[in-house]
Design a protein that fits this description.
Blueprint: H1 7-29, E1 42-47, H2 53-67, H3 69-73, E2 77-81, H4 87-93, H5 99-106, E3 110-113, H6 131-138, E4 143-150, E5 155-162, E6 175-177, E7 180-182, H7 189-205, E8 210-215, H8 223-235, E9 242-247, H9 248-254, E10 266-269, H10 271-285, E11 292-296, E12 301-305, H11 311-315, H12 325-337, H13 341-357, H14 372-381
Parallel strand pairs: 1-2, 1-3, 3-12, 5-10, 8-9, 8-10
Antiparallel strand pairs: 4-5, 4-11, 6-7, 11-12
The structure holds 3-isopropylmalic acid and magnesium ion.
The site of magnesium ion has 3 residues, from helix 10.
């Protein structure tokens, strides 16, 4: 038994390790993927979140309801509003996700989620864990899939960001001993495998022939080293796909190199690098307001914008001008995920026309451009399956 100044931190670290070992064991036992086609009634939770969240989520909900109206009328699809995931309620409960909200989320099959405010030290809120991060962990949404495309520049990237571990696994469980502050990065064999396999499977399914693994394995030797060595192992199962490995710093540079960036196709990254690089990547497409993301697990899936809740826009009364394209792109991924492929293509095509080709309306985030509702109407006018 250790005593003195190191006994509490040692006990904290032991508990952290025990919890992570238990998580790794649970993961190893997980069974297969849910089959949405086999469900009599598919429940889509709609969770507006904070800040501009409710405004942009309402637009994507409206478009989804239009695309799925026949199935909703026949009772095969149900939209269920979950309006309790607000920063005020989370702060009052002092939890990243209040217990009752978590139960409501778990009663759905897939979730369309607006951005939620993530507190940090010094904010008027308790410094609770991010609701996004907590939801990804609670629902075990291990793959964060973030596509970015700019057709006229030949950019067509799909990022597979690991979503439940890495620097985020114990992001709120670091410790301070005297003047030393320590955070922990955790990866597991099963966690790396399932994410990297998902990236290769996606490449195979979509006819892409290259998967780039992004780490900093030369410096972060244990966790990034494991991610990379597992990738090398998995790549052997995909003889038609070339795997290359990159350090995250040079990937950040090469994405802005017009001669090289077109070569990237599918990229698989540990959690924190995926967070950073996907914001950079989205900038090519018109900013984070234009990028959606899918958080995929075996039982649940959640679809969201890649950006935050932009409280300043609400304070300045500009939430009606917020860009709903991030949530509409997320809705494309939701439709695809639940097997409504033709409607996913229809919405994707309509967005491409409005965002990249015709560009009749422009979103500027203020009254110099159109409102989110006007843009959503514009997108709806281009749908061909409704
Ligand atoms: C994202 C966001 C979140 C993250 C924040 C809001 C906690 O930046 O979805 O990329 O870091 O994952
Ligand atoms: Mg981010």
């Amino acid at each position: 038994m250790m005593c003195g100044p190191l006994s509490a931190p040692t006990a904290h670290f032991t508990k952290l390790l025990e919890d992570q070992l238990a998580r790794a064991r649970r993961m190893a036992q997980d069974d297969g993927l849910i089959d949405y086609g086999a469900l009599d009634r598919l429940i889509i939770g709609v969770c507006g979140g904070d800040g501009i969240g409710p405004a942009i989520t309402a637009q994507s909900e409206r478009v989804l309801k239009l695309l799925l109206r026949d199935e909703a009328a026949a009772g095969r699809v149900e939209f269920r509003v979950i309006d309790s995931l607000t920063i005020e309620r989370r702060a009052a409960a002092n939890r990243a996700i209040p217990e009752d909200t978590l139960e409501e989320l778990k009663a759905c099959h897939v979730i369309l989620k607006g951005p939620t405010t993530t507190p940090r030290a010094g904010d008027p809120w308790p410094n609770i864990e991010s609701a996004n991060v907590a939801m990804r962990k609670e629902l075990d949404l291990f793959a964060n899939v973030r596509p970015v495309k700019v057709p006229d520049q030949g950019i067509d990237w799909v990022f597979f960001r690991e979503n439940t571990e890495g620097a985020y696994a114990a992001g709120s469980l670091g410790l301070e001993v005297e003047d030393v502050a320590v955070d922990f990065t955790v990866v597991t064999t099963a966690g790396c495998r399932r994410l990297i396999r998902a990236a290769f499977e996606h490449a195979k399914k979509t006819g892409r022939d290259r998967v780039s693994i992004v780490t900093k394995a030369n410096v972060i030797k244990t966790t990034d080293g494991k991610f990379l060595s597992i990738a090398r192992e998995i790549a052997k199962d995909y003889p038609g796909i070339t795997m290359d490995d990159w350090y995250v710093d040079i990937v950040a540079a090469k994405l802005v190199d017009p001669k090289r960036r077109r070569d990237f196709q599918v990229l698989a990254l540990p959690n924190l690098y995926g967070d950073i690089i996907t914001d950079e990547a989205a900038e090519f497409q018109g900013g984070v307001g234009t990028a959606g993301s899918a958080n995929i697990g075996a039982r649940y899936a959640m679809f969201e914008a890649i950006h935050g809740s932009a409280p300043r826009m609400v304070e300045e009364g500009r939430d009606i001008y917020a860009d709903p394209c991030s949530m509409l792109r997320a809705s494309v991924m939701l439709l695809e995920h639940i097997g409504r492929a033709a409607r996913a293509r229809d919405l994707e095509r309509a967005l491409d026309v409005c965002m990249f080709e015709e560009k009749r309306l422009r979103i500027t985030g203020r009254d110099t451009g159109c409102t989110g509702a006007e843009f959503a109407d514009y997108v709806c006018s281009k749908l061909t399956t409704v």
